[in-house]
Design a protein that fits this description.
The complex is a heterodimer.
Chain A (H helix, E strand, L loop, with lengths): L1 H11 L2 H8 L2 E2 L7 H20 L8 E3 L11 E3 H11 L4 H28 L8 H23 L4 H15 L5 H9 L8 H31 L13 E6 H26 L5 H4 L18 H9 L6 E3 L2 E3 L1 H27 L17 H19 L3 H8 L3 H33 L18
Antiparallel strand pairs in A: 1-4, 2-3, 5-6
Chain B lengths: L17 H24 L5 H20 L1 H4 L4 E4 L16 H21 L9 H5 L10 E2 L16 E6 L10 E5 L6 E5 L11 E3 L4 E3 L6 E3 L5 E4 L8 E2 L1 E3 L5 E3 L13
Antiparallel strand pairs in B: 2-3, 3-4, 4-5, 5-10, 6-7, 7-8, 8-9, 11-12
Helix pairs in contact in B: 1-2
The chains are: A mainly alpha, B alpha+beta.
The complex binds FE2/S2 (inorganic) cluster.
FE2/S2 (inorganic) cluster binds next to loops of chain B.
Chain lengths: 448, 264
């Protein structure tokens, strides 16, 4: 073993970097483990995804089904749907692994959002970590896109509808929309090509970009050192924490097994994405409301809330509801997140070397109020996707529910902003800031 | 960062490896048995996956217990990176070399532009993709089961999805046939919502309204598919109807407008 190590070290010189990596310091707060949840759900996604890819057939062409799923025998089904039926009914582990893939995906996105919120509200995105924040935003966008392409693939009722929405969204871009939709689909909807293209995006391009950017993200975290909460013994000059080996490794092991355990537990009890129940995508069989996955509900909600009166024509282009909901809104949300560090720098100017310690959300009224109102807005827009359920619960017309909810969606976030902002301002004025006696260590030159 | 620079305040606690090692061995044996059962009996996910979940949680818990000391591990200190401000700018060169860089850049960008051209091969012209349907003069209206419809097959207030006999599987030609109350008039419309492309599949005979379940665009079938409420901005295209020599319903032309959502 040691000789093998020596031989490898001779050729690669890996021991120096390894020794440095092992000594990396990690702070102890539990909220810093959210990113690790994301990391391990990605591992779960990749592993289960490889298994699923071995059995999936990305084709929309119709053929009579003679597989293992009894209720469907004899029906004419799209190839993709039939292969998922067989995966569930015939392939050993097929159904479990597919469910596991779904639950890892939900956990991946949920922990990404939670991690981003943690970074935002504690000011961990400040320069020099703004680059890390931007890379993270691209990761979030890629994760959303890959989540979307993933649930399109089985070509069940939900998946097919999602693909139709994709065509609409591409087509809705002013001036170039027709070309975008045509080049993406290559044939009248759904056509023989789109599933194969989505498949390559989902299993190759998306994951490759995600893994590459995740590498960049982690590199930046290591290069810039981890942030930490202020407290006794914490200072801007020194990093305080526990080394990667053995301390952080053990914490990480616990996180990893909790993530895998949770996904396995959920896969046991909850039939997520039961395509057998939804049925294959066919316009003639369409039935009542289908909702996208939770992480795309805000776009679905925007589709419902935005009134058609906003549509207009301009030099040969048509600006329409799908364009506002599925293109403009995401651009505003992601653009706002991307630009925020620059705004924050204006509002809370700080010396560049004073940004390794995190800030309490209650000390930064504007930042906290802005983030909170943004989240409130997203929650309200997402809930608009439940308008028909609300309508039947309150025995009202859907359009009435929509008008009321639209007004609330526009008015509650500003109210939330004002309330949080004024409350935190008052609080800051009346409570004395906490100060810690920080033992000063002599400054060291960073040698690398 | 030099290893010697770190100030370690306390001794590292000694971890006990016996319990995790035993658990790992148990997991290996257990999962082998599990895999055998799954393959041999084609069991559905139930107790077996639950067992896996329990094992995974057990590993997490054991690690946590065995290495509990690590979670209150005394902290160690190391240096933070200092901000790099006003580093010396990269000098690319002057005079002819700058021209050379510009030349290289333009060469590469034109190469890139040429490499974008194959994108054109991804699909035909938009008009061939977004509008094409199979309805022509004389094409019969079939139900989903392939029955050619007569007017009398649809009761007043009735509603049925129809497909063109020429190409029944084409989703873009999918249509709905409604029979109004009280006039008894039959009319057909595209089934593809002009908002985002869902299937319009709810008919309310008392008000003669067709509703798309996705975002509740509502179309007035008695008034040529006019939008009554909801996010759709264009009327639902109507399919002009006729009756052939055998009394079956046929289209007399293609839809009276482009189907589905308009391109931007
Ligand atoms: S697709 Fe019909 S209302 Fe949106």
């Amino acid at each position: 073993m040691a000789r093998l190590g020596d031989a490898l070290d001779d050729r690669t010189g890996f021991r120096g970097p390894l020794r440095r990596a092992v000594g990396r310091l990690f702070p102890g707060a539990w909220s810093f483990l959210l990113g690790e949840v994301t990391l391990f759900s990605l591992v779960g996604l990749l592993l289960s995804g490889v298994y699923l890819a071995l059995f999936f057939d990305p084709s929309a062409s119709l053929a009579p089904y003679h597989g293992a799923s009894t209720p469907y025998v004899g029906r004419t089904l799209p190839g993709a749907f039939a292969s998922v039926l067989d995966l569930d009914a015939r392939v050993p582990f097929g159904l479990v692994v597919r469910r596991f893939h779904h639950f890892s995906a939900h956990l991946f996105l949920a922990s990404l959002v939670a991690h981003a919120a943690r970074v935002y509200f504690t000011g961990a995105f400040r320069r020099p970590r703004d680059l890390t924040w931007w890379v993270g935003l691209v990761l979030l966008a890629l994760a959303l896109i890959n989540g979307f392409s993933g649930y399109c693939l089985p070509f069940d009722m939900r998946g097919g509808t999602a693909i139709r929405m994709l065509m609409t969204t591409l087509g809705s871009v002013p001036w170039i929309g027709g070309w975008l939709a045509t080049l993406a689909f290559g044939a009248p909807f759904p056509g023989p090509l789109i599933l194969g293209r989505l498949y390559i995006l989902h299993v190759f391009v998306g994951p490759a970009l995600i893994v590459a950017l995740l590498g960049a993200h982690l590199f930046l975290v290591i290069r810039l050192t981890h942030t930490d909460h202020p407290g006794p013994g914490r200072s801007e000059r020194l990093e305080v924490g526990s080394p990667l080996w053995p301390v952080q490794t053990m914490r990480t092991t616990v996180v990893a097994f909790l993530v895998f355990g949770w996904c396995a537990l959920m896969s046991t009890f909850f039939p997520v994405e039961a395509v057998e129940v939804y049925g294959p995508f066919q316009y003639t069989n369409a039935y009542a409301p289908l909702l996208p996955d939770w992480f795309l509900m805000w776009i679905e909600g925007a589709f419902r809330l935005l009134p058609r009166q906003l549509d207009f024509h301009l030099i040969g282009a048509h600006f329409s509801n799908p364009f506002y909901g599925a293109v403009v809104l995401p651009l505003i949300v992601f653009g706002g997140c991307a630009l925020y560090p620059l705004v924050d720098e204006r509002i809370y100017p700080q010396p560049l070397h004073g940004r390794h310690l995190l800030e309490s959300p209650s000390d930064r009224p504007f930042r906290t109020a802005f983030g909170a109102s943004g989240l409130v807005f997203l929650v309200f827009v997402s809930m608009a996707a439940l308008d028909d359920r609300a309508a039947s619960a309150f025995r009202a017309d859907v359009w009435q529910v929509n008008v009321v909810w639209g007004i609330l969606t526009l008015s509650v976030p500003p109210v939330a902003f004002a309330a949080v902002y004024l409350w935190l301002r008052r609080r800051r004025a009346t409570t004395r800031p906490q100060t810690f006696l920080v033992p000063q260590m002599p400054a060291r030159k960073h040698s690398s | 960062m030099q290893p010697g620079e770190r100030v370690v305040r306390t001794q590292q606690p000694k971890p006990g490896f016996r319990i995790p090692a035993a658990l790992a061995a148990a997991t290996a044996v257990g999962s082998t048995i599990w895999a055998y059962i799954e393959y041999a009996f084609r069991a559905r996910p139930s107790l077996l996956v639950l067992a896996l979940a329990v094992v995974l949680f057990a590993i997490a818990a054991t690690t946590l217990l065995a290495f509990r000391a690590f979670f209150e591990f005394p902290s160690v200190q190391g240096p933070r990176p200092l901000p790099v401000s006003e580093a010396a700018p990269v000098v690319l060169g002057v005079g002819t070399r700058r021209g050379f860089v510009a030349l290289l850049a333009s060469a590469f960008s034109s190469l890139l532009a040429i490499l974008l051209l194959p994108l054109r091969s991804l699909g035909p012209r938009p008009s061939q993709v977004l509008r094409a349907t199979a309805w022509r003069n004389g094409v019969r209206l079939l139900t989903a089961d392939g029955v050619a419809l007569r007017v009398s097959d649809v009761p007043p207030g009735g509603f049925t999805p129809v497909v063109p006999a020429a190409s029944p599987d084409d989703p873009n030609s999918s249509a709905v046939l409604v029979r109004l109350r009280p006039s008894g008039q039959v009319r057909a419309y595209s089934r593809i919502c002009t908002h985002a492309g869902c299937a319009v599949c709810v008919f309310m005979p008392d008000t003669s309204l067709l509703v798309c379940p996705c975002h509740h665009s509502t179309f007035d079938v008695a008034a040529g598919g006019r939008v009554v409420s909801g996010p759709a901005s264009r009327p639902l295209p109507e399919l002009p109807l006729a009756v052939d020599a055998e009394g079956r319903l046929v289209a007399s032309d293609d839809f009276e407008g482009p189907i589905g959502p308009v391109a931007g």
